[in-house]
Structure formats: structure tokens, C-alpha cells
TrEMBL record:
Pfam families: Peptidase_C14 (PF00656). InterPro entries: Caspase-like_dom_sf, Pept_C14, Pept_C14_caspase, Pept_C14_p10, Pept_C14_p20, Pept_C14A. The lineage of its organism: Eukaryota, Metazoa, Spiralia, Lophotrochozoa, Mollusca. This is Uncharacterized protein. PROSITE patterns: CASPASE_P10, CASPASE_P20. Belongs to the peptidase C14A family. Residues 15-150 form the Caspase family p20 domain. Residues 189-283 form the Caspase family p10 domain. One of its GO terms (biological process) is apoptotic process. PANTHER family: CASPASE, CASPASE-2.
């Protein structure tokens, strides 16, 4: 692949870009996220090694997360940057909302919890960096890595369905009481987070599932992301970034937990994207 033929994003800017890290660890209304400090340290090292300017924040409320994102989106550094990265690690869920747009459905969308127990919708958060709100990143790739559960109040894990990382734009059909509902009845319908142009959003689990985290070693997704990117760091200018992220998902799909309540069950991740070019992250000198 010729990385200078116009089919790839420009990674010859003065700066690599900002890597915004938000790690919510200590909560007022629910359990703390033990092991998150390992994720934070690994992500700071990883994106620092990739020559990003890391901006790390801990224990933010929902309004705090929104405010930080809004401030970062207005940073002038974006004008001279290759791209943008955002890592969010917190509790989360998928909220159900009734809609009559195409019949009696339940739309489900992920919300990320602040340490105060309040939540911000994933679509609202990533939308802060869309082209119309963040001019400096217009036409540049923006990557979001979200470690947060996507359950809707009932703990559930995927039981090992075949993983097709490149088909993540498809809607995932949910069941109700382990039975599919007939036409005309209320059917839960998953609505993936809207993905603006030139964005990629990677989730630690598929819809309706838990995002796994080990108190000693950190989150599964960040473990694999760190290992794969560090291993291939010198080759990011020659290997398409999406190829490596797909490999991260493949490794995630093979992980198992020894916890008795989830024995022999899997928690695969997924990503959605509206990138319009290939991504070859040239090494910065």
C-alpha cells in the first residue's frame, strides 16, 4: 500500500495529537473499579511511546467528563496534529428508551457513568469531537476506546458466538427472556452509538454484555490493546491500524474467565467506524 497516494490519512503533521484519558475508579454510588490504575499507567505509556501528548484525568463526574471533552476539543494543537485518541474507562450500561418511530421498539444506547452516579450518552460524548464542533480535527482520524459495560440491568455475557470484527456496523438482535418476539410485539432493538465521519469507536464488549476487568491485571481490552500496539509500534507506518485493532478483537474473543459465575463464557469486543481512508501511523522522530 502506498501511504502517500491519497488513499491514506496524512500523518506528516508537526504533532501526533492529543491522547485524552479519563479513568473513573472511585465511585460514590457503586463499587470501585479495582485494577483501573494499571490500565491508566499502561495507556499513558502506550500513547506516550506513540508520541501523543497525553492528558490524563481521574474520577470525573458526568458533567466533568463533558467539560473536559469540550475543553480538549477546542485545543489549538489539533490544527497541527495527525489524529486524536480518547480512552474512557468507567462503569456503564445501555439505557432503554421506548420509541414509535418504526413501531413499538425499545432503543438501547450506551451511557458512561461518572463517579457521582450520573451518566453521559456515548453518542453525546464522541459528538463533541465531530467536524462541526471540533474544526481542528476536521477530516482527521479520531479513535475512541471505551471500557464500560453495555448491560441493561441484567448481567449477561456472550457465550462464544463467532466473532466477525469487520461486520460491526450491523445491528445486533437481542432476545427477550431467551425467546425472540413475533412481529407486532415489543422487540428490544439495539441502537449502536452514532459514529461521525472519520471516527472509530472500540467497545470492550458487544451490546448487552459485560466489559471484563481483572483487579490485578486491569481490563481485558486494554491489556490486549497495550500488548498488540507495543509489539507492533515500529511497524505502524506500514501496517494498517485497523488490521491491528481487528487482531486485538480476535485475541479478546479467545479470552476466558475463571470466575465460577461466568465459567467458560466469553466477552468479545467490537468496533464501529466511519473512517474514509487507511490509517498508517508513521513513526515520529
Amino acid at each position: 500500500m502506498n501511504v502517500s497516494d491519497g488513499s491514506s490519512y496524512n500523518f506528516d503533521q508537526k504533532e501526533r495529537g492529543i491522547a485524552l484519558l479519563i479513568n473513573n475508579r472511585n465511585f460514590k454510588t457503586t463499587n470501585d473499579r479495582k485494577g483501573d490504575e494499571i490500565d491508566q499507567q499502561n495507556m499513558i505509556k502506550l500513547f506516550g511511546d506513540l508520541r501523543f501528548k497525553t492528558c490524563s484525568y481521574e474520577d470525573q463526574t458526568a458533567d466533568g467528563m463533558r467539560g473536559i471533552a469540550t475543553k480538549i476539543a477546542q485545543d489549538s494543537i489539533h490544527e497541527d496534529s495527525d489524529c486524536f485518541v480518547c480512552v474512557v474507562a468507567s462503569h456503564g450500561r445501555e439505557k432503554q428508551t421506548k420509541t414509535d418511530t418504526h413501531g413499538p421498539y425499545l432503543e438501547r444506547e450506551q451511557e458512561i457513568m461518572g463517579v457521582d452516579g450520573n451518566e453521559i450518552r456515548t453518542s453525546d460524548f464522541v459528538g463533541i469531537f465531530s467536524d462541526d464542533k471540533c474544526k481542528g480535527l476536521r477530516g482527521k482520524p479520531k479513535f475512541f476506546f471505551i471500557q464500560a459495560c453495555r448491560t441493561a440491568g441484567v448481567l449477561k455475557m456472550d457465550e462464544g458466538c463467532p466473532l466477525r470484527p469487520l461486520e460491526t456496523l450491523k445491528l445486533i438482535q437481542e432476545t427477550h427472556g431467551n425467546k425472540f418476539m413475533n412481529s407486532g410485539e415489543e422487540v428490544p432493538m439495539v441502537t449502536m452509538a452514532p459514529c461521525p465521519e472519520d471516527m472509530l469507536i472500540m467497545f470492550a464488549s458487544v451490546s448487552g454484555n459485560l466489559a471484563m476487568r481483572n483487579p490485578k491485571d486491569g481490563s481485558w481490552m486494554f491489556q490486549e490493546l497495550y500488548n498488540c500496539l507495543e509489539k507492533n509500534r515500529k511497524d505502524l507506518g506500514k501496517r494498517n491500524f485497523l488490521e491491528i485493532l481487528t487482531y486485538v478483537l480476535a485475541r479478546l474473543s479467545k479470552k476466558e474467565t475463571s470466575a465460577k459465575q461466568f465459567l467458560k463464557q466469553f466477552s468479545p469486543g467490537c468496533f464501529i467506524h466511519c473512517l474514509t481512508k487507511d490509517v498508517f501511523m508513521k513513526e515520529k522522530v
